[in-house]
Amino acid sequence: MIEQAIFQLADRGATDPGMMVVSGPSGYGKSVAAAWAKARHRAYYLQLDDFVTRKSLLVQLCLVLGLSVDGKPPKGTIQHLAERVAAQLHQARRPLIIDEFDFAIDKNLVMAVFSIYEMSRASIILIGEEAMPAKLQKWEKFDGRVLDTLYAEPVSLEDARRLARAKNAQLPLADDLLAHLVKIARGSVRRVSNNLRKIFETGAAEGWDHCDLARWGDRPLQQADVKRRAS
């Protein structure tokens, strides 16, 4: 989905908006997909947190964009840092991925990112939780610069097969066990991954050459909170 966003932005017309939104519940693999896209497409990547401010956002962007001096961000006013960031994005022509963008919404930094986009006209991908697209509609000018919104898909049986092979191709897992992992994960690729780790650790300790649902039995597995997912 992140790669799809990069392709859509690369193919946009001269007058088309240059930001994409990718949303979905926690655990749906958005950040993993972002890390993969970062490596494959040389994208800049920044993950926000609850401590972000207007100044720290620009400082972190300077570091991500390689604008540091002896490992330290350039000094200057907020306006100066914003201009440096925008100039680098415009010159590099590399996409910028901002993960956990919900924090920017909560801290009222949406229009700060809007200004960076307007100055740079860069391709910017914003990743957040499932409610983020609706929240962004509060800022009409910002929302009008969003080319498209993509929604993360829940983990599938085929995803579980690929994960299992990638983690341990030496211990085959039956489809009935993988289907059970998908069911109790309720869409979360992270929970499937966590449970695969537990199964492979158990299999290594007990010398298994394969595992199906019957062999796993009633051993505990990590399950999604039904009430939380439904809320």
TrEMBL record:
InterPro entries: AAA_22, ExeA_AAA_ATPase_DNA-bind, P-loop_NTPase. One of its GO terms (molecular function) is ATP hydrolysis activity. It holds the Pfam family AAA_22. The keyword Nucleotide-binding applies. Keywords: ATP-binding, Nucleotide-binding. Residues 16-130 form the ORC1/DEAH AAA+ ATPase domain. It comes from the Bacteria. This is ATP-binding protein. The lineage of its organism: Bacteria, Pseudomonadati, Pseudomonadota, Betaproteobacteria, Candidatus Accumulibacter.
